[in-house]
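Holo prediction — uridine-5'-diphosphate.
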Amino acid sequence: MKSKLKLIDESGRRIDGRLLDELRPLRFEVGILKNADGSAYIEQGGNKIAVAVYGPREVHPRHQARPDRALLRTKYRMATFSVKDRKSPTPGRREIEISKVIREALEPALLLEKFPRTAIDVFIEVLQADGGTRCASISAAALALADAGIPMRDLVTAVAVGKVDGRIVLDLNHLEDQYGEGDMPVAMMPSLNAITLLQCDGTFTLEEFKEALELAKKGIGVIYEKQREALRSKYLDALKTYRVI
Ligand code: UDP
């Protein structure tokens, strides 16, 4: 049962000192793993997540291959040490569901039809979890896919918004996720203004829902710029190394 923990103080500050519309500190890094075709890392508040992409490559088992497009497979996993209570190493229903949700959020952005009969595998390892890991995973996975050179319509960027002490807030941390009244993860292809994921846990009035969606879009705009910066900086570094610029 949810307790009466006070999550917003009289001055409008949240439990970690943020304002209602403030994101947690955010950092991306692209190309962190040399054995993967593409990779990325995200730190968002207390979340630390690494993503590796392999492919397009041969499909095993073969019968899963699609004649007209690549098969996108996503595996979201939380390390046993990623949360305070030890998490079971066996993937539970939550990890299976989140893997599916992440795949569905990424799929619309990928030109999978360019690679028939192949597979693209996305491995997501949550090293430390602090609320909103599915969204942070989506933002990092989009970068890893771009790093692998998979043609995309746009990046995918995600953030959770929610209702805490009756107020709509951006980018919930674990305590807000656990003790708040509602949680709404949103993913978008920002340049196309297209939503690829919208989940909702809790009760929102229509007005609250609209406010939450607007706030999510605002946060997504900021995260999108950081993603682009991270991609740009990897490739500028490479050009400098090879003295192209
Ligand atoms: N969590 C946990 N143990 C678990 C699963 C989740 O402590 O076995 C925490 C973790 O911090 C996670 C948060 O609960 O980020 C919220 O989990 P949820 O299922 O809502 O997914 P998320 O918000 O991470 O996408």
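READOUT: The CA atoms of residues 98 and 134 lie 7 Å apart.
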